[in-house]
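Task 17 of the worksheet. Students: predict the tertiary structure of the chain below and write it out as structure tokens. Keep your answer in the requested format; marks are given for formatting as well as content.
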Amino acid sequence: MIKIVILVGSMITLGFAVWHFLVPWKHKWSNYMPNISKDLENSIKATNFFFALSLLLLGSLSLIVTSWLWEDTLIVKIVLVMMSILWTARVVYQIIKPQGKMLQHVSTIILGTYIITDLLFVIPMFIVFFK
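Model answer:
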């Protein structure tokens, strides 16, 4: 059951990675940045790209560890701690600097999604550490 929970969290992480790869083009970010330098625009897009790549790599790592390296408890613990820190930080950041306030209730939905994803790693982490 723990492995299924982690796999769901990993798939959600991969979904966020794909979304971040597509969002600059889907939402035409360049249209929102007409008065900034091309260097700054490229830096913003690069930051998003490397964040998406990081999510893709971490989500893939947690899938691989859960699927094929489950018996190596040290690796499992390390990955669960990393994913828990990542998603807990994202929850805290959403609380402090909420995104999605342009549309009513979107910010709350985003926060809820981050909390659920966080719990999909935090709960298994505690179970693995304290069993």
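Marker's comment: The chain has one domain: 2-130. Residues 10 and 59 are 5 Å apart (CA to CA).
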